[in-house]
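Appendix C reproduces, verbatim, an entry submitted by the partner laboratory led by Prof. M.T., so that reviewers can inspect both the input and the predicted structure.
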Amino acid sequence: MTRAARAPVTTTDAGIPVASDEHSLTIGPNGPILLQDHYLIEQMAQFNRERIPERQPHAKGGGAHGVFEVTEDVSRYTRATLFQPGARTDMMARFSTVAGERGSPDTWRDPRGFALKFYTADGNFDLVGNNTPVFFLRDPLKFQHFIRSQKRRANNNMRDHDMQWDFWTLSPESAHQVTWLMGDRGIPRNWRQMNGYSSHTYMWVNSAGERFWVKYHFKTDQGVDFLTQDEGDRLAGEDGDYHQRDLWEHIEGGNFPSWTLHMQVMPFAEAAHYRFNPFDLTKVWPHGDYPLIPVGRMTLNRNPIDYHVEIEQAAFQPNNLVPGTGLSPDKMLLARGFAYADAHRARLGVNYQQIPVNKPRCPVHSYSKDGAMRIDPVTDPVYAPNSYGGPAADPNRYPEAAVWAADGEMVRTAYTLREDDDDWGQPGTMVRDVLDDAARDRLVNNIVGHLLKGVSEPVLQRAFEYWRNVDKQLGEAVEHGVRTAS
């Protein structure tokens, strides 16, 4: 059988067979192209429009499909169906860098996004996290400014270390995350060998209505590993898609990566009197106070067929919460509950949740209608309340359980300070008590190398003080390294 006999016939996007894959319609073989060559027009017009706007942060990334299986019993903490004993839920994951554009190298020093979508019987459940358990900020008003400081200058369109350190050193709350970033985990060896964290505090609610504060920890079963700065720089030039290629090839070869989910669980009432604010995104909960509780395993076992459709158009949002889960008073999380969905509407269109990768695997009965690229038909009635059999909320079956009380004057203050609410304590503990001597040396070398790339003298002075506040010896070593190298 010839190839022509085996291959399907080329069609237009409307399914109409085309006459040629190679030649435009012209007046004679040497004549002008005709406007009525609708297939040529379709090909050119589609090509001109096939790039959608890239994500603002997390533009460069990749991912895969998989399954989440519950292996333990945590039903005492949540009634969410995907976390019940033995539950098996289809899901997908997207990993990414934060600051780089779509064409940027995978191995730049940057936090890695760790976004998950679970297709549950009660609707989509999304987690947006990173490979670090903390973040640079605790208040969302600064988020836009932070991202701009990591992107490109207005005048020369280049990334600028002076701009980055200017922002960080004027934002002491960034110290914990910057210590993570400049350490070994700032460049994961690959996506398979990095952990994923919710970073944010969320809420779980059990079947009795009891509430708990929780943090999600996806621990890699492949073991954590990292690239040195030299290795990362080399790979950035040799193979800018190194992490994406690694994930694809391992799954293609049947070596499916997996992560074990552990939870930290804080009784609801303890948050009010804990020694620091447990909703502060720049802090971790000590494992000695709230040990890790195993839940289940996430395994990625299927590569995408169409990267654009399944990965680039994937839309994750922390407001996708199923019964038994909820948000917390974490200010960054509350703002992200709006910001992510709004970004998707701007980038993909108002009906982005009808794109197959985002489409729930359960019935949808909403009152949304019309808008660009509306796919699912709408039936009357299109308003509520109504007397014609339209969907109706059932507060007895699905009560608003994930709530908390709040009162006080309107203020612009991040959080009320508590006994251990400072910006330098936790990163200092990491440097002194978690890192070994070799890791501390690499941390110093990474910071010095970063500061030597165009950081101005006034910002350098603040950077030295910044690191002395984290740890005096660390700050002195950083200043010594910069001064002797410059």
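The radius of gyration is 25 Å. Additional entries are available on request from the coordinating office.
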